Amino acid sequence: MFPFSFEWVWDAAHIIFFGGLWYALSILGMGMTYVIFKSLYDVIWGKESEGH
Amino acid sequence: MDSALIPDGAKRCSFPVFAIGIAAVGAVLLWGVFAMFLIWFKGLNQTNMNDYYGFALWIWADLAVIAIGGGAFFTGLLKYIFGIDELKNIINFAVIIGFICYSSALLILAIDIGQPLRGWFIFWHANVHSMLTEVAFCLSCYFAVLVIEFIPNILENKQLIKIPFLRHVNHNMHGIMAVFAATGAFLSFFHQGSLGGVTGVLYGRPFGVREGLLVWPWTFFLYTFSAAAYGPTFTILVTKAVEKITGKKLVKDNVIRLLAKIAGWMILVYIVAKIIDTIYWANVTAPQLGFTLNDFYGHGFYRIWILYAEIIIGGILPALILIFKRSRENSTLLVLALILAVFGVCLNRWVMVLQVMAVPVMSFDQWAHYFPSWQEIATTILPVAYGIILISLTYRYLPVFPQEQELYPETIAAAKAEAEAKVQEEDAKKA
Amino acid sequence: MKQEQKHGKTYKFGMAIDLDKCTGCGSCMVACMSENNVPFKVDESNKKDSISWMKVFKLTNGKSFPDTEICYLPRPCMHCSGKDSHNPSPCVSVCPATATDTDPTTGIVSQIYTRCFGCRYCMAACPYHARYFNWWDPKWPEGMEKYLSPDVSPRMRGVVEKCSFCFHRYQEAKDKAYVEDRDEINEEEYQTSCTQACPAGAITFGDLNNPSHAIHQLVKPDPHHYGKPRNPKAFRLLERLETNPKVYYISEKEWVRKSGDNYLEGEWEKVKNHHG
Question: How many CB atoms lie within 10 A of CB B143?
Fold first, then answer.
């Protein structure tokens, strides 16, 4: 899973597989981080949500 | 009693009736939970699996729930990426069904492994060449996507939405939902496919093995496509079931019919691909390994009917019903098509797991037999009970179906009038 | 895999079983169980969930008396080499946790019990049913645990196990060679327990890369065709699947050789001369 685990090999298979994985996880992580911080900002600075 | 949590204007049964219903399903759930702990404490000797049948009911259940749970990613893809806006009226429910299916699959996997406490080895010591590794990674990640997609719906609960922070979270999540949906579709493509690859790569098992493209056997693509095609049929089927149980129309016919039409065409394309795959496998792949169709379909339960049932009854027939406007708009035929479609995809997953194990490979070996133990059956029914409870809770406390209010304007008007009357009464009391 | 030894000789251990010599006595099975601490149940009547790394199958020619012939076929793990480097043995390629691997220095397919988490994908992949799951915790009759081999770790419930070609004996032989300052181990220094236990001398074990070893002379492996036997009386199980086993069988009888694989109608007649 990480380059320091002993099964890790710097080959195409590992780079593609884990590249895809970390790419997807980063998008999810960054997306949720954005949502949390944006919401905190909106609450603190009083921007009223238009709601859904 | 719990009216403070029920969405405004929604008419729900009284709390005691609801509680009795939940308790009844809860009893089944507890039965499953009991079996689950029995298996965790005593081990897989509680099952009827054996060394010939190492993959059995649970793996089928995993494959089947993930196929029928495919409605979530495909509906999301259609709505957020292809911009089919009508589907916003069913996307919440599709996500909930997907959430139930995927959480169930993860639970079953946790029961299915011999050393559950070492389950994390699949991530930590990952062999990237194994289809199961790809399944585990994409499944877990996609489950995270489903949780993210489910959160805004939960936050729309009448009480939660009053909290400013959560209201903003809900709003902001809706704002970037397309990004999450796209990630979900990307992950789904790979995990649905790798589930297809699970048996497709077994080159020691001529019944399961398929040739393919690069590292992916044809079943990889067939599974992805079939999940996209059949997933929405399960979403619609459950919607219809909820409508029947609640006695209410929850999603407008035009939305249902649109999704059904798309599913119909998708199933047709899939089934053509499946037929081509079957013909190639039966005439080229298997004979190269010394097998004929008779060798695969010549014993006990596993006869050639199973192939016809999957392709014709569970494929061509529902596809045709869903494609043609007249049959699609006939509610009985529509429900029939949905049931056949769900049956078809589940049968496909059954064959691709159970029959692969049953067929003897060595010329002097015998067909393997298996019937699940009660513990396996109970733990497979467990997710069904869990699903019913979760759907009941979400239907009661969350605005799952946006069109419900639109379809019942008089109920809303009555509820609003009642609320206003209450306020006036309280004002009068204060005065 | 990454920390593989860069020094020393590369072996390719294999086994040849002369089916015409095998009497089906089961000594190999017993020796294997005792050597490798293979657990057993109180009631062993259900063979589908009892463990026998070495299992003897009974084959018949399907003819009625007086033409009936039978043959006993001992089946250890085949230690498949697989199709190519991208497709190692069917089980190694599918194990999600890298709990089974092919040792590049010996060709032996290993099983790491403490790494296996019991998904059983390898069992589904193996067409020889050479892999066994520990459905129960191993329980030894009172006092018997004292007789367990200290060289082989007993397995816990919930993991898969299989024949290791008595790998601990290889380690022992290697240690001995090291102490005696030798680079190579001798043929007789590393023999599996089933080989030694067979009263008929039906099993031959050795290095398929070494032309001086008996097994090499018996099967004459073709290095250009994944070790396919050049001896016309030798064959491998399910050759057509391209699993490329390191276990060979030898028989003078044509029907026995035919039983080693699956053939369409009339196909055997065309290929039998290639197979012997």
Answer: 20
| Residue C73 CA from chain centroid, whole number | 12
Tell me which amino acid residue C163 is. Answer: C
Contacts of C49 in chain B (CB under 8 A): 45, 50-51
DSSP state of C84: B
| Contacts of C78 by beta carbon, 8 Å cutoff, 6+ apart | C89, C128, C130, C236, C237, C243, C245, C246, C247
* Class of the domain covering B15-403: mainly alpha
Q: What is the DSSP letter of C252?
A: S
Burial of C71 (0-12, 13-18, 19+ CB in 10 A): buried
Our CA angle for B108, B113, B116, nearest 5°, is 95
pLDDT reading at C275 higher than 60: no
Q: Which residue has the tokens 């399910």?
A: C238
Residues in A touching B141 (Cβ below 8 Å): 21, 24-25, 28
List pLDDT tens digits, range B165-214: 999 998 888 888 889 888 888 888 888 888 999 999 999 999 999 988 88
* Residue C161: strand pairing partners: C132
Amino acid identity at B57 = L
Q: Verify whether the Cβ–Cβ distance C1 to A8 is below 8 Å.
A: no
Q: Average pLDDT for residues B300-317, to the nearest whole number?
A: 92
Domain annotation covers residue C27: yes
C163 lies in which domain range?
A: 13-275
What number of CA atoms fall less than 13 Å from residue B93's CA on the CB side?
32
CB contact under 8 A, C98 and A7: yes
Q: How many residue pairs bridge chain B and chain C with CB atoms within 8 Å of each other?
A: 169
**Distances B423 to B217, B411, B417, B427 between C-alpha atoms, Å:** 65, 18, 10, 6
Nearest CA in chain C to A13: C86
- Domains: count for chain C: 1
Q: With a cut of 50, say whether residue C5 has pLDDT above it.
A: no
Question: What helix, strand, coil percent values describe chain C, rounded to 5?
Answer: 25, 15, 55
Q: How far is CA C247 from CA B59, C54, C135, C206, in A?
A: 31, 12, 27, 11
Residue B220 pLDDT > 80, yes or no? yes
Residues of chain C neighbouring A9 (CB-CB closer than 8 A): 1-2
Domain for residue C153, yes or no? yes
Element (H or E) spanning C29, and its range?
helix C27-35
Domain assignment present for residue C199? The answer is yes
Rounded CA-CA distance B99/B93 in Å is 10
Residue ranges per domain, chain B? 15-403
Binary contact (A28, B156; C-beta < 8 A): no
CB distance A28–B176 less than 8 Å? no
* CB nearest C125 (choices: B118, B202, B287): B202
User: Which B residues 105-124 touch C at CB under 8 Å?
Assistant: 112-116, 118-119, 121-122, 124
Q: How far apart are CA B389 and CA B405, in angstroms?
A: 23
Is residue C272 within 8 A of residue C258, CB to CB? The reply is yes
Bridge partners (DSSP) of residue C72 are C58
Residues pairing with B298 in the sheet: B303
Q: What is the pLDDT of residues B9-61, one digit of tens each?
A: 778 888 889 999 999 999 999 999 999 999 999 999 999 999 999 999 999 99
Distance from CA of A32 to the nearest CA of C (A): 30
pTM of the model: 0.91
Q: Do A51 and B175 form a contact (C-beta atoms < 8 A)?
A: no
Angle between helices B88-112 and B253-280 (to 10 degrees): 50
Whether residue C225 is contained in a domain is answered as: yes
Q: What is the pLDDT of residues B47-98, one digit of tens each?
A: 999 999 999 999 999 999 999 999 888 998 898 888 888 888 899 999 999 9
CATH label of the domain that carries residue C178: 3.30.70.20
Q: How many Cβ atoms from other residues are within 10 Å of residue C230's Cβ?
A: 12
